[in-house]
Design a protein that fits this description.
18% helix; alpha+beta; 6 strands
């Protein structure tokens, strides 16, 4: 009887830990904090997805395998290595702009278009 109860408590504790980790958001991204992630001057060998926002929006960025690269409140500018592809979900898509490589930034969508957007590297 004691072992099943201990197992149940362990599962409950693990679930609570997972929920608290998901609910904790990162502080807003600022240009100063993300400088080391910015592309150096000139062309980068690895294509980059650059997100920017002048106002705070919740953003989730994941790679083609579903691995989360960033999740939390976002404001400022931040670049991510594109790899095979990246997907972006913004709580306020009207506030977040995205660009791939040297392409001009484009708004993710109107305020009501909260959906995953997929970005892939441009063909050479």
């Amino acid at each position: 009887m004691g072992l099943p109860l201990l197992g149940w408590l362990a599962v409950l504790g693990w679930q609570q830990f997972g929920v608290s980790q998901r609910l904790r958001s990162e502080p807003p991204s600022t240009p100063g904090a993300a400088e080391h992630l910015e592309r150096p001057a000139g062309r980068s060998a690895v294509p980059q997805l650059t997100l920017s926002s002048t106002e705070s929006s919740w953003v989730h960025v994941r790679d083609h395998r579903g691995t989360t690269l960033f999740e939390g409140r976002f404001q400022g500018r931040r670049s991510f290595p594109l790899g095979k592809s990246l997907e972006v979900l913004a709580g306020r898509p009207d506030l977040v702009q995205a660009s791939v490589g040297d392409a001009p930034p484009q708004v993710l969508g109107p305020i009501e278009a909260v959906r995953w957007r997929r970005f892939t590297a441009p063909q050479p």
